[in-house]
Each structure stands twice: as C-alpha cells, then as structure tokens.
Amino acid sequence: MSTVATQASAQDIRAHVAGLDLSEIDVSDPVLHRDDTIHHYFERLRRECPVHKASTERFGEFWSVTRYQDIMETELNHKVFSSEPAITIRDMPEEFRRPMFIAMDPPKHDEQRKVVSPIVAPANLARMEQTIRERTCRVLDGLPRNETFDWVETVSIELTTLMLATLFDFPVEDRKLLTWWSDVATVDLTSGGPIDTDEKRMAELMKCLEYFTRLWNERVNSDPRPDLVSMLAHAPATRNMAPAEFLGNLMLLIVGGNDTTRNSMSGSVVALNRFPDEYRKLRENPGLIPTSFVPEVIRWQTPLAHMRRTAKADGEIAGQKIRAGEKVVMWYLSGNRDDTAIEDPEAFIIDRKRPRQHMSFGFGIHRCVGNRLAELQLKILWEEILQRFETIEVVGEPERTFSNFVHGWTRVPVRIPG
Predict the structure, then answer these.
(1) 33-73 pLDDT per residue, tens
(2) 72: how many CB neighbours lie within 10 A of its CB?
(3) How far apart (Å, rounded) are the C-alpha atoms in residues 300 and 309?
(4) Could you tell me which residues are beta bridge partners of residue 82?
(5) Which of 132, 282, 411, 414 is the most exposed place for a label (fewest CB within 10 A)?
(6) Single pTM value for the model
(7) How far apart are CA 402 and CA 407, in angstroms?
C-alpha cells in the first residue's frame, strides 16, 4: 500500500472516530485490534474520556483506563482493584474457570509466584544464555536466502517453543503442543477458527492437563529439579493444587512464556522495516540492542493489549467514581502510546532517553515474572541477526492476531537477500 493511500485511510478513520458519540466507542472489539485501527479510538479516549464506561453485548459493562499514569496508579492499588476473578474482559462461565496466580490477590498470589520465580533469577538466566544462543544460531543458520518465508512460524514460534520446552523440561519432540495449547487458551472464540466454543477449548486444554499430569507424577516422586513442573510439584504452596488450578497455572506460564516473546520477535522485524532509519542506526551501533532497542521493541509492540481488574470496594480513578464489583480494563496498548508520558510515542526510536518507561510488563505485584528472560531472548536474537544478515525485508502485508488481549502477529512474510 502506498504512503499516500495509507495517510488517506488514516484520515478517514480519524474522521469516523471523531464523529462517534463516546457511548458508541467499544475498544474491546477484536476487529479494531486486528485491523490496527484501535489506536485512533484510544487517542480520542485519552483526550476526552480517559476513564470510559462501555456497555457491550459480549462483555457487559466495563471501564477502560487509557492514560499511562492512571493505568499505573490503578495497577498499584491492588487492594481496591483486584485481579480476582479474571485478568481478561470476559467473565468465563463458572465451569470453565481456571484459577491461576496472576488472577489471585495476596497472600496466595505471592506464595505461588515465589515458587516459579527462581527459574528466571539472574543466576539461572546466566546458565541458560549459552543454550538460548546456540539454538538461536541454529535457527538463523537454517533460514533460506532470496525466498519468501514466514518469520512468525519459522523463527518466532520455533525459538519461543524451544524455550518453553526447556523451562518445563518438556519433551522437545512434542514441543509444538505447547504452541497449540497457548493459542487455544487465548483464541477469540469469534475469530472463525476451529476453537469456537468454550467446550472445544476446554476439551483441548484437558489434553494439556493430562500430558502435564504425567510429568507431574514422574517428578513429584523424584528429587526436586530446576524445571517448572518439578518446582510446582515440590513446593508447599502448589503441591496440593486441584487439577483446575494446576491447569490454570500451566496456561499462565505457557502463555506468558510464549505470546510476549513470540510477538516481540515478530514485531521487531516489522518495526525496523517501517522505520528504516532506525534499522540503519541499529546496524551502525549494535551496542544499542540491550540498552534501548529491546525495551523499545517491547513498548512499541505491547504484546498483551490489556489486563483487567475488578473493584473490591468503591474507588476512584482520575476523578471517576468506580463502584464495587465493576470491571476495570487497563489498556497497556493505549498507555504505551500516551504522549503525556512518552515522547513521540507512535514512532519507533531505538535510542530513546528513557526506553524502559513502558507498561508492557505491568507494574507492582503482578509485574511480569519472566520479563528479563523475554528481554534476554530478544537481545540474543538481534545480536546474532546482525552478525549474519545485512537486512531482513518484510515483503508482504503482515497479518495481525484477531484478539483484544494478545497484540500479536499471525504471519510476517520476509525475505533475506544474499
């Protein structure tokens, strides 16, 4: 698509959004996220109604918090704005709910989080770095030259799935099951795919539970090992979990280890192609990779668009009264584009002065436990890319995920000259 056509389309969308009554705006619509028009809606809400109440047929009533500072203050106020019972907009039917520690409040949240946090402790990351680098090199060395392939499938999914298999000590030959279960857990049921009911979703996730229960039974009867299944099986806070809670925590760890890194890996290639001057800057100064390039990718991509809270008591956000029981959705995707907090937020700038001023990992007690592992994988990927390839060209229109939760890519067609 030409630049002129793109600008004309953006102007049309802005005009459409400007003409809507605020009550007509529904930023939970996955179509807006897939089509990447959602930022125009967020821009208007930040300006005119930063704490916005929507009433939708699909999700009921919910408040959208769209400004950086308001999101941060909401997230830090976990005593009023609770993660229970869910972190996504939809209220799952009771029979399909899966408890997980990210959707819990202290003290149980803290106890379960501590069980898995050692796997991403600095010393363990240092031990894993060589393995990550060797795998990254092997995948990159196997890429074709002068022909089109899908970066998502060939690189992003392969690398993140291998990492998940390592964290769980999961059989490598079955690793694609991890990607499948991650996709099943997060799929929008209206996307037109094969998982279009809660019953179908749960049937597939029960296969995940069955597989991991076998691993649990092996490890609970063995000496503790440094993998996530063994950690959960041996820790007092998690060894007596009910099956639904075990499945919930598995899905949290699988999705958390998959979607964030996978979509940042894909988004990095898209971003550098859209901002070629930044690509040139990166080639000239690879030292920017760990210091500012990696956090800028994660900000610009924002792999998870939102997190939800539920008011446990009457509260207030930016002067707006919130009543007990109401749903509050913190739109990280909007906060990361808030120009009152981030200078020139629509641009991808790999040497920002404050590159870590983003909310992609959340704040406070629920801040992403694996954030440093995600950054390490992205860092190693681009260190090795720059040693091999002059450029990676996006040669077709990338395709986005149909979701208001996972802000990702399903296909990024690329070509490596050479």
Answers:
(1) 999 999 999 999 999 999 999 999 999 999 999 999 999 99
(2) 18
(3) 23
(4) 310
(5) 411
(6) 0.95
(7) 8
**H, E, C per residue of 377-396:** HHHHHHHHHHHHCCCCEECC
Neighbours of 232 (CB within 10 A): 24
pLDDT at site 280: 98
Pick from 26, 22, 29: which is nearest to 48 by CA? 22
**Kind and range of the H or E run holding 228:** helix 228-234
ω before 295 within 30° of 0 (cis)?
Answer: no
Amino acid at site 373: L
Instruction: Note the Cα 347 to chain centre separation in Å.
Output: 20
Which DSSP symbol is given to 145?
S
CA nearest 328: which of 318, 340, 338?
A: 318
| pLDDT tens-digit map of 149-191 | 999 999 999 999 999 999 999 999 999 999 999 999 999 999 9
| Residue 191 structure tokens | 């996307």
The CATH number corresponding to 3-415 among 1.10.490.160, 1.10.3720.10, 2.10.77.10, 1.10.630.10 equals 1.10.630.10
Q: Which of 178, 183, 176, 213 lies closest to 201, judged by CA? A: 183
Is 347 exposed, middle or buried (CB count within 10 Å of its CB: 0-12, 13-18, 19+)? middle
Phi, psi (degrees; rounded to nearest 5) at 305: -70, -30
Contact 171, 165 (CB under 8 A): yes
- Lookup: tokens for 106: 């202290």
Side chain identity at residue 39, one-letter code: H
> b/e for 250-272, b at 16 or more Cβ within 10 A?
bbbbbbbbbbbbbbbbbbbbbbb
**Spatial separation of the C-alpha atoms in residues 180 and 254, rounded to whole Å:** 10
Asked whether the beta carbons of 65 and 42 are under 8 A apart, the reply is no
Provide DSSP, 163-185: HHHHHHT--GGGTHHHHHHHHHH
- Is pLDDT above 90 for 12? no
* Local structure of residue 342 (DSSP, 8 states): S
Q: Is 334 helix (H, G, I), strand (E, B) or coil?
A: helix
Those residues with Cβ within 8 angstroms of residue 325's Cβ, 6 or more apart along the chain or in another chain: 310, 311
Q: Which residues contact 104 (CB under 8 A, 6 or more apart)?
A: 83, 84, 112
Q: Does residue 2 register a pLDDT over 70?
A: no
How many helices (H) does the chain have, and how many strands (E)?
Answer: 17, 12
